[in-house]
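Regression test case RT-17, inverse folding.

Input:
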């Protein structure tokens, strides 16, 4: 009985995962490879053949490639600052973490209020006499500005997630390591690159994987700021499922998102591999 106790304790979580994750996941896989009751690749062919697929695919990749590295740099800088501060550290950490309490859609609407024709940006430019009439920043003919607005909203909304994880990782690094490096004459940059950064690899793995998965699933912010003028994979999944009423193609899109998530997770784990002897 004592040997079976750990498995009994894990049983509720296992059943939960099987009922609410593995079973629905299996249904999606089957749905993506069947059409008209037959096993086929027709859903994938229809997905790839649609004119919005390549645009949505590369928009998602580009958004991830731009946003995630910038967020990593910002999160590292913010976490370093928070870790160095003695007085008021908790307050600053709370201020940085405020966007975590805001939903994706709410974040998109906040930035929509900035970039819309009657929004803050146009009002500020008009106040300083830089424009004679409001600029339509988020028009379908100004996709670069739409992309910038979405990227800024995503950076503002989700950088704190990475920062919190990195702050926790920095708290696990013994202070003696940096003190020893300082005694031997290492500069601040050398201490960060040679001591702090290598020991942060486990935290960086977690932060990057979580953020990349979220980037591939971006939806509400894009809808709020770009509408249908800036298609992304998750938006097309929603469109095929609810607008076009084609569950098979929607499931194929879901499998593409899953494939990208798994592939990038493997890449991150390999790039930030932590040897056993280097772990704290």
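Golden output:
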């Amino acid at each position: 009985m004592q040997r079976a106790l750990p498995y009994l304790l894990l049983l509720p979580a296992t059943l939960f995962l099987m009922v609410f994750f593995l079973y629905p996941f299996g249904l999606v896989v089957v749905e993506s490879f069947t059409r008209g009751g037959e096993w086929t690749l027709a859903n994938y062919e229809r997905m790839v053949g649609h004119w919005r697929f390549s645009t949505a695919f590369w928009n998602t990749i580009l958004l991830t490639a731009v946003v995630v590295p910038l967020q990593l740099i910002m999160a590292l800088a913010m976490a370093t600052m928070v870790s160095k501060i003695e007085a008021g550290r908790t307050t600053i950490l709370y201020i940085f973490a405020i966007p975590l309490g805001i939903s994706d859609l709410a974040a998109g609407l906040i930035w929509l209020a900035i970039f819309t024709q009657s929004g803050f940006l146009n009002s500020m430019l008009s106040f300083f006499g830089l424009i004679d009439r409001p600029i339509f920043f988020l028009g379908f003919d100004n996709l670069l500005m739409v992309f910038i607005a979405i990227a800024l909203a995503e950076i503002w909304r989700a950088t704190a997630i990475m920062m919190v994880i990195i702050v926790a990782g920095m708290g696990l690094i013994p202070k003696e390591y940096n003190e020893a490096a300082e005694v031997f004459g290492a500069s601040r940059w050398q201490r960060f690159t040679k001591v702090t950064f290598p020991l942060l690899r486990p935290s960086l793995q977690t932060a990057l994987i979580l953020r990349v998965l979220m980037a591939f699933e971006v939806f509400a912010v894009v809808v709020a700021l770009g509408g249908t003028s800036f298609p992304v994979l998750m938006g097309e999944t929603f469109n095929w499922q609810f607008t076009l009423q084609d569950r098979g193609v929607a499931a194929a899109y879901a499998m593409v998102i899953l494939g990208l998530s798994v592939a990038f997770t493997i890449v991150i784990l390999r790039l930030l591999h932590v040897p056993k002897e280097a772990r704290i």
